[in-house]
Amino acid sequence: MLPLLRSELFRMTHRMMTRVMLLAMVALVIGAYVLLWASSGALSEADLAAQNDHQRLANAPEYGVDIAYQVGFLISIVLASSLIATEYGWGTIRTILARTDSRSAFLVAKLLAVGIFIAVSALIGVSSVFAGSAIVTFAGDLDSHVGSGFVTRALLSPARMFVVLIPYASLAFLVALWSRTTAAGIVSVVVAFYAEVLLTPLFQAGGAFSWFPEDWLIYRNIRAILEMNSVTPDPSLQNAWFGLGILAVYSAGFLGAAFWRFNSRDVTLN
Amino acid sequence: MQDVVLRTRGLTKHFGNLVAVDNLDLEVRRGEVLGFLGPNGSGKSTTVGMILGLIRPTFGTVERQGMPLQRIGAIIESPAFYPFLSGRDNLRALALAVSGVNEERIEQLLNSVGLASSAHRKYHTYSLGMKQRLGVASTLLCDPELVILDEPTNGLDPAGQQEIRALIPHLAEEGRSVLLASHLLYEVEHVCDRVAILQRGKLLAEGLVSDLLQREAFLEIGVSDLKAASELIGQLECVRAVRVEDGFLHVDADANSGSLITKTLAEAGIYVSSLSQKHISLEDVFLELTAEGDGTP
């Protein structure tokens, strides 16, 4: 399996798309910090104080990671979909599988490559968050006191970001594998995400859907992990550890289905 | 008996109601070049897919005699590589996936297929012929015991086709076995030791190319009295069939039976004006067999 992983990483690092997406992560995260700060002149005094509090270094592990998550969400589903679907599109799945005695090893290598990309993007994303926050904190002369526990929270940030990116990337991977198209993988996640975000308030507002299992949905549990230690936590969110368990179950389900589908399907030649 | 490197037993593949390959028994022996012929849709590619583990058989088995897939080099239908990588990096990516292939081997292969000077170019900029050459290089990457080539001369210019045709017997000389699926019957006739002809998933014929061609060869005899000569020759033991065609006798007989036939006719007072051994090509054999298999006259 290790030779297959080495080959995956070789191809991934030689692909322009991978580098562009990671550069986009840096540019968008730092850009978001700088733009928000630069446009803060139009805010009321209260809003400005709130924004400055969010943007200062002490709150980067929560507020900034939320920004990095939005970018990471997009690039992780694009990469997860593309990494498997393009093998079908280019026909290279035949080239590699015809030299591989284990299909599962091929898929494990692919998933590890996706995992490594997500881990790297989480590290780069969080680093960009701290860079952006540091720029704004010092350029805007914001309160630079970070308080106790900051280092632990900062060090845990990439891990939290990694964990929350996995479920949707797993769903994208499954759908892209099943459909053999990158677009289907991306669209399925976008649909799942917006369905949850848009439909949940409707179900809650009606009151008639008390059975609706909102605590078991994906994005809600992602929020529970992202908002750990937040300055303004959402009290309706469940415990982050519970969220982690739910996301693990979703990810395992998506990846299990991907393995089953991949191992049971012929790689037809046309 | 020659060592067998690959054997299929009762290999069958159903796609829904379609029987793509039907109870196929096939052997590839060490050091031989086996031609695998069949019209489009006859099941050749499905068979190759099953040999390589890409397609799961409905019934039957593929026995690779303990040979790992890494020791089979294959181009399936058309070469497929990563368009964003150069020719050299594509071989590197494959080498990494199978391990045990060094940089020197990659350069050696690029040289041998004439791609050394364009190995730095991205694959998507390659011509069809260059892609095919890279495909051939990739099949030889892991010092394969068995090479499967599906239409290897597709897209190559005449010089390139000649190089590939020369390469195939050379592979066999090195002790490798080659399974060559091709529509170019001339190509198969001249480079293959044995041939297997497939139609609608069924094996129509299998054997040495020379045997197949000999089986279909005949003597063309010119005589004045076709009817009497036909009756007389038909009684000879060495003659399997006689028919009259275009003012000549076409005699299906052993290759060395010419002298006995002329002697028999001369003794009966029938003199031969011409006699020639007519050879037919693999293309004729192929068309005849597939027409029979198709139910067309």
CATH H-tier superfamily of the largest domain in chain B = P-loop containing nucleotide triphosphate hydrolases
Alpha plus pi helix count of chain B = 10
User: What is the name of the CATH architecture of the largest domain in chain B?
Assistant: 3-Layer(aba) Sandwich
Distance between the termini of chain B: 38 Å
* Chain pair sharing the greatest interface: A-B, 26 and 34 residues
Give the uncertain stretches of chain B in residue-range form: none
Give average pLDDT of chain B, whole number. 84
The strand count of chain B comes to: 13
What series of H and E elements makes up the topology of chain B? Answer: EEEHEEHHHEHEHEEHEHEEHEH
Biggest beta sheet summary of chain A? none
- State the helicity of chain B in percent bands: 25-40%
Quick description:
The complex is a heterodimer of chains A (270) and B (297). Chain A is 77% helix and 0% strand. By secondary structure, chain A is mostly helical.
Task: Describe the protein.
Chain A is mainly alpha-helical and 270 residues long. Chain A is built from ten helices and no strands. In chain A, α4 packs parallel to α7 and α4 crosses α8. Chain A is globular, with a radius of gyration of 20 Å. The mean pLDDT of chain A is 88. Chain B has 297 residues and is an alpha/beta fold. Helix content of chain B is 35%, strand content 29%. In chain B, the strands form three sheets. In chain B, strands 5-6-7-3-8-9 form a six-stranded mixed sheet, sandwiched between helices. Chain B has a four-stranded antiparallel sheet with strand order 11-12-10-13, covered by helices on one side. The longest helix of chain B has 16 residues. Chains A and B meet through α1 and α5 of A and α1 and α2 of B.
Defining key terms:
heterodimer, A: 270 residues, mainly alpha, 77% helix, B: 297 residues, alpha/beta, Rossmann fold, Alpha-Beta Plaits, 4-stranded antiparallel β-sheet, 10 helices
